[in-house]
Design brief:
Blueprint: E1 6-7, H1 14-24, E2 29-34, H2 39-44, E3 54-59, H3 75-85, H4 90-103, E4 108-113, E5 130-135, E6 150-156, H5 162-167, E7 172-176, H6 181-184, H7 187-197, H8 207-234, E8 236-238, H9 240-249, H10 259-275, H11 292-308, E9 310-313, H12 321-335, E10 340-344, H13 349-358, E11 364-367, H14 368-372, E12 386-390, H15 401-411, E13 424-428, H16 438-448, H17 463-471, H18 475-481, H19 483-489, E14 490-491, H20 495-501, E15 506-507, E16 510-511, E17 516-524, H21 526-529, H22 534-543, H23 563-586, H24 588-609, H25 617-625, H26 643-648, H27 650-657, H28 669-690, H29 699-709, E18 717-720, H30 724-735, H31 742-746, E19 751-754, H32 760-770, E20 789-792, E21 807-810, H33 818-827, E22 836-844, H34 848-867, H35 873-876, H36 882-892, H37 897-906, H38 912-925, H39 927-931, E23 937-942, E24 947-956, E25 962-970, E26 975-977, H40 980-987, H41 1005-1028, H42 1035-1047, H43 1055-1065, H44 1071-1087, H45 1090-1104, H46 1113-1116, E27 1126-1134
Parallel strand pairs: 2-3, 3-4, 9-13, 9-14, 10-11, 10-12, 12-13, 17-22, 18-20, 18-21, 19-20, 21-22, 23-27
Antiparallel strand pairs: 1-7, 2-5, 4-8, 5-6, 6-7, 15-16, 24-25, 24-27, 25-26
Helix pairs in contact: 10-38, 11-12, 17-18, 22-28, 23-24, 23-34, 24-28, 24-30, 25-27, 42-43, 42-44, 42-45, 43-45, 44-45
Length: 1135
């Protein structure tokens, strides 16, 4: 080919020219000066470059400061970046192996330009020149000396990279001594020279002389370039070994990384967003002072809110969730002047109002109880920009009024606030899961808005099915199943994690301390309390039929039975028997009240059933509330049927008029009456046994008084009980009579009570009097108003800071140990002044095992029925698990570790422990160690009964940040696991873990990688399809839409309005709206009044509107292609 004078990579590429020269001039010497070098540059000349006799490569170096810093990256960094960006392929691996082999030749040199001077501003020189110089012999002449004959010199803009040699639009000028005949006889060039010189050409110059003259010009240019090159070469330092090391350290090289390096690389890349900076403006002022771990929680919550418009802050009790929420509200309501709403338990309303006022944050505060009343004017709340819900676990049941009201507030105005953006929801709770995993689903669904594809970009195509699969597991296992989602939306740290990860945490310049928690057991005699009747009472409870809850079992032999209802009713019998036993243990008075109520109801039920009226407990209670002068005072008389009183009160009787009637032909009335009579006899006998037992005979109360007088005298004490009846009984027992001189001996302490009947405002005043320091009322400390002993139910176990107190007494057994954790959290607060917190638990001395055995048997029976699917949460109520019984036994043995274990059990699976491990590592080794690990590296790890490969890919998210794809390909099962929690368990290891030789000969990692990549791309495509297709909506919406479509052509109806309303009905609707729609459809089916249906749909539409996507939603859709997936690391796992 003819070597051109100008190379621009359009008509001629530099790669083609070099390959031609190196092919036709084998054994030549080649010098290259370039700012950057890449493997793709080598790829273009890989077949011809090895033909050179010698090769010198001079690379530029990075600028050391000044304004141009960053315009030209470090040559090392440039090559590492290219290697990191390259996909892992067999072809590229072979290319790098060839390059390394070439560089190892003795006749190949590589140096890095360092210069020998500095500019006045302190910046070092940077070699930005690009030059290619070729030297060689003439014909078959043997070259005896280096660089004897200059052949070609190319200088211009092309770096020794793939784009520089072939793809970029470059400009390079060629100087050469190798001339073609046509170049010697160049008439066009001669004409230009003559015009310039103004003289005639001497015709006596031969063609050979012309060739020589032109070659001399080329040679002079090349010699000058060679001299320049040698000067720069002298200003450089050897870089060959480092260049080879960069290549060897890459994913294509032969460096053997350890499993620990892979583990740390994976953790660092996965958690680096949490390590990186904040989304807030550092210049903004703040009135909310936080400690380090709270600041970190705020940073993570901000990122989650930016992506999903909702976050759950689920730190353990006592870690300051209120302050985290307060800081987030400051972001939106103070700095951005957005409209804010706080929803909290009534007992915390005054606290939130004080905190907002102190921080000058404008926010509306409404109690959860107010939301549940159902008569709230939602119009004033429709345009809230940010909503914070404290104690958000109270919104775990989607069927409650408070949940439906909050749904409506969030759905209003097309889910947009006054500012125009989507509403933000901040949920604060230490216990997001109380009964099962769907507690969490319902809370997350508040900001997902019933859109099952809401988390499609996180790899969750159907949120409901995702949780449904997890519900089959225990709480702990279920949270592992949904680990990937938890990482997306939950901030969760435990007390143990905070103590470990932030040992030097401070607030207000003072180091935070954490008190030790100790369990103490107080024994009492349950048999003595019940005056020797305990065993007989328990036996009679076991024999109760409770037929009024189990009517399906009393159907006639030939009547068809509903298996679902039969299972449900059998479970109800077990549940109510266990409730009797729990109240029996709680207090004599709670049990006595239960027996009296049960006797009244069974006798009343038996009387009405004779008239075929099926009375249920809820209707009975409603009727009783309407009877004049009805109170629950216990005069010791025999409880009787209340049928006559109900019949005499018209309003009460009206409640019964709508009750179902018993079909006498389908039921065995005689057997039913016999069962009711047996229950009346047993309950009557129990009543006689317990009706006159008083405080003096109650051994449990006496043991409590002894504890308070002896060990706890003079200390502030809170006494918790599950039952309101027990709280009243205890308060009365401690305050009303002092015949034994106990109050006087105690020093006449101030004793108060809090339960659900105490008004929220009064609760707040009682809390302030019991914990004046924590409530900011230090002036009340030591006054006559300060409370010494507080008797409380679990209305006090939410949110309240009672850290003035260091002693807690649990009066009844922890059938759900979650309560013990919640109660302990009231006094175990960050910054407590106590070194030791004591938790006293009362346990029956001799009867514990028999009591636990009875309840355990009933619980197992209920669980068997529940496994068949006959029950729902509304029937089950509080769930007791077999694990809880073992926990009770350990509490009785004063096993102090049980609290932390219970906290861990309640924890959602979280990466916070991984963060702690990473932070400890970085504090020891520094960020540089892990940052210097190249992308795509691998190792081998031995794991028993395992054979597969772990891959970690990332892709940029359209809305900012990165999407993480962790995959483990199980070779034995030929399946891919994507649960990051499970994968972490596989790859977690220590620095001492040896590298297990990867089974390269057994496993084709390139083939497996392609399967994994194809799976990710397909998965993302399915996610995109889920986002684009019509959302799955409730059946009621489909029916309503179809009805409107059928009537759309009626002349009196506005067809455009119906079209818009049907568009509204195609989007996911909240449960409260679906319920209204269900009623409207039912009414339409009865009267065919489309106007009424249209009115309801119109009302919902006007309140909520259509949820429009953002203008840039299409641009933010996370489209991921094969080339977008960047490999971070991978690991062979083998037995």
């Amino acid at each position: 080919m003819k070597i051109p004078y100008v190379i621009d990579n359009i008509e001629h590429t530099l790669a083609d020219v070099l390959n031609y020269l190196l092919t036709t001039r084998a054994g030549a010497d080649l010098d290259i000066a370039t700012a950057y070098f890449s493997i793709r540059g080598f790829e273009h000349v890989r077949r011809t470059l090895p033909n050179v006799r010698t090769f010198r490569l001079l690379l530029g170096d990075k600028p050391q400061g000044g304004e141009d810093l960053g315009l030209a990256p470090d040559s090392r960094a440039f090559l590492r970046h290219e290697l990191n960006a390259e996909p892992l392929t067999l072809e590229t691996q072979r290319l790098v192996e060839e390059l390394i082999a070439f560089l190892r030749r003795d006749d190949v040199q590589a140096r890095l330009y360092v210069g020998n001077s500095q500019f006045g501003n302190g910046r070092r020189e940077f070699l930005h020149a690009k030059c290619y110089l070729l030297y060689g012999g003439v014909g078959n002449q043997q070259v005896l000396f280096d660089h004897l004959f200059p052949l070609v010199g190319i200088v211009g803009s092309s770096n020794f990279t793939g784009p520089g040699l072939a793809h970029n639009n470059e400009l390079n000028l060629v100087h050469k001594t190798i001339l073609d005949v046509t170049e010697v006889e160049d008439d066009a060039a001669r004409a230009e020279v003559i015009n310039h010189a103004g003289t005639q050409v001497n015709g006596r110059i031969t063609a050979e002389n012309q060739h020589l003259l032109k070659s001399e010009v080329g040679a002079r240019a090349i010699l000058d370039l060679a001299a320049w090159f040698n000067r720069q070469w002298a200003r450089s330092t050897d870089f060959k070994d480092e260049l080879i090391e960069i290549l060897e350290s890459s994913k294509f090289g032969g460096r053997e990384y350890t499993p620990y390096e892979i583990y740390m690389k994976a953790l660092f890349e996965y958690l680096r967003d949490d390590l990186d900076g904040d989304l807030s403006d550092p210049a903004t002022r703040s009135a909310v002072e936080l400690t380090e771990f709270q600041e970190d929680a705020v940073k993570k919550a901000r990122r989650i809110l930016a992506r999903y418009d909702g976050v759950i802050v689920a730190d353990s009790v006592g870690l300051g969730k209120t302050w985290i929420g307060k800081k987030l509200l400051e972001d939106y309501a103070y700095h951005r002047r957005q409209k804010a709403l706080i929803i909290c338990p009534a007992s915390l309303r005054s606290m939130w109002e004080r905190e907002m006022q102190a921080a000058s944050i404008a926010a509306t505060v409404i109690s959860q109880e107010r939301l549940g009343q159902g008569n709230l004017d939602l119009r004033a709340l429709a345009d809230m920009d940010v909503i914070l819900v404290d104690e958000a676990h109270n919104f775990r049941n989607r069927l409650t009024n408070r949940y439906r009201t909050l749904e409506m507030i969030l759905a209003a105005n097309g889910r947009r606030g006054r500012d125009g953006g989507r509403k933000k929801l901040i949920l604060l709770t230490a216990t997001p899961i109380n009964n099962n995993i769907f507690d969490l689903y319902n809370q997350i669904n508040l900001f997902a808005g019933n859109d099952r594809a809401y988390f499609a970009t996180a790899g969750i195509g159907d949120l409901y099915k995702y949780f449904l699969a997890a519900r089959r597991e225990s709480v702990a296992e279920g949270s592992i199943r949904i680990f990937n989602l938890l990482e997306e939306v939950v901030v969760r740290r435990t007390r143990q994690f905070i103590r470990s990860a932030y040992p030097e945490a401070t607030i207000g310049g003072k180091r935070i301390t954490w008190p030790e928690r100790r369990l103490r057991t107080v024994r009492y005699d349950l048999e003595s309390t019940y005056e020797g009747f305990y065993q007989d009472i328990v036996s009679r409870i076991e024999r109760l039929n409770l037929a009024h809850y189990n009517l399906e079992a009393y159907k006639a032999t030939d009547a068809a039975k509903d298996d679902f209802e039969l299972g449900r009713e059998e479970a109800l019998v077990g549940i109510f028997k266990s409730r009797f036993l729990k109240r029996l243990e709680s207090s004599i008075d709670a049990f006595r009240i239960s027996i009296r109520r049960a006797l009244e109801f069974v006798k009343t039920f038996d009387e009405y059933i004779q008239d075929d009226i099926v009375l249920d407990a809820a209707s009975f209670q409603s009727a009783m509330r309407l009877i004049e002068n009805d109170d629950e005072s216990d005069d010791g008389g025999m409880p009787t049927s209340r049928a006559a009183a109900i019949d005499d009160a018209a309003a009460a009787r009206a409640v019964l008029d709508g009750l179902p009637r018993l079909d006498a032909k389908r039921y065995n009335r005689r057997r039913l009456h016999h069962a009711l009579s047996e229950d009346i006899d047993n309950l009557t006998e129990i009543w006689y046994q317990v009706r006159n037992i008083g405080v003096r005979e109650d051994d449990k109360v006496q043991e409590l008084k002894h504890l308070l007088l002896s060990e706890l005298r003079g200390q502030k004490v809170i006494i918790f009980t599950y039952y309101k009846d027990t709280a009243r009984y205890l308060h009365s027992a401690l305050t009303t009579s002092d015949t034994d001189g106990w109050l006087q001996a105690m020093g006449d302490p101030v004793i108060r009570r809090i339960d659900s009947d105490v008004a929220p405002a009064d609760r707040g005043r009682i809390v302030e009097a019991f914990a004046p320091h924590a409530s900011g009322r230090s002036e009340d400390m030591g006054s006559e108003h300060e409370i010494d002993i507080l008797v409380a139910t679990d209305v006090m176990s939410e949110g309240q800071n009672l850290q003035d107190c260091g002693v807690l007494v649990n009066y009844d057994l922890h059938w759900n140990p979650t309560r013990m954790v919640q109660r302990a959290g009231r006094i175990d607060r960050m910054g407590s002044a106590f070194d030791v917190l004591t938790i006293h638990n009362l346990f029956p001395e001799r009867e514990l095992e028999s009591l636990l055995g009875l309840v355990e048997r009933l619980t197992r029976k209920i669980d068997v029925i529940n496994q068949t699917g006959f029950l729902d949460a509304s029937v089950l109520g509080e769930v007791v698990t077999p694990r809880d019984f073992n926990t009770l036994r350990r509490i009785a043995d004063e096993d102090g570790t049980v609290i932390e274990e219970q906290e861990s059990f309640l924890e959602l699976a979280s990466s916070e422990a991984l963060m702690a491990e990473l932070q400890r590592f970085l504090a020891s080794e520094g960020n540089r160690w892990v940052q210097d690990l190249d992308d795509g590296i691998h190792s081998g790890l031995q794991r028993r009964n395992s054979k597969g490969v772990f891959f970690y890919f990332v892709a940029k998210h359209a809305a900012g940040g990165r999407v993480h794809y962790w995959r483990y390909y199980d070779i034995n099962r030929r399946e891919v696991i994507d649960n990051r929690y499970q994968i972490i368990q596989m790859i977690a290891c220590g620095p001492e873990t040896p590298r297990h030789p990867p089974p390269y000969h057994e496993i084709d990692v390139f083939e497996i990688q392609e399967k994994v990549l194809a799976g990710i791309v397909t998965e993302v495509q399915h996610q995109q399809a889920a986002e684009l297709v019509t959302k799955e909506v409730a059946q009621e919406q489909v029916l309503a839409s179809d009805i409107l479509r059928e009537h759309a052509r009626r002349p009196e109806l506005d067809r455009n309005e119906i079209r818009e309303l049907r568009r509204y009905l195609k989007q996911p609707m909240v449960g409260a709206s679906v319920q209204q729609l269900r009623r409207a459809v039912q009414i339409y089916r009865s009267d065919s009044d489309v106007e009424a249906l249209l009115s309801i749909v119109r009302e919902l539409y006007e309140a909520q509107g259509i949820v429009e996507t953002d203008d840039d939603a299409d641009n933010q859709r996370n489209i991921v292609r094969r080339e977008d997936l960047h490999l971070i690391c991978y690991e062979y796992i083998d037995a």
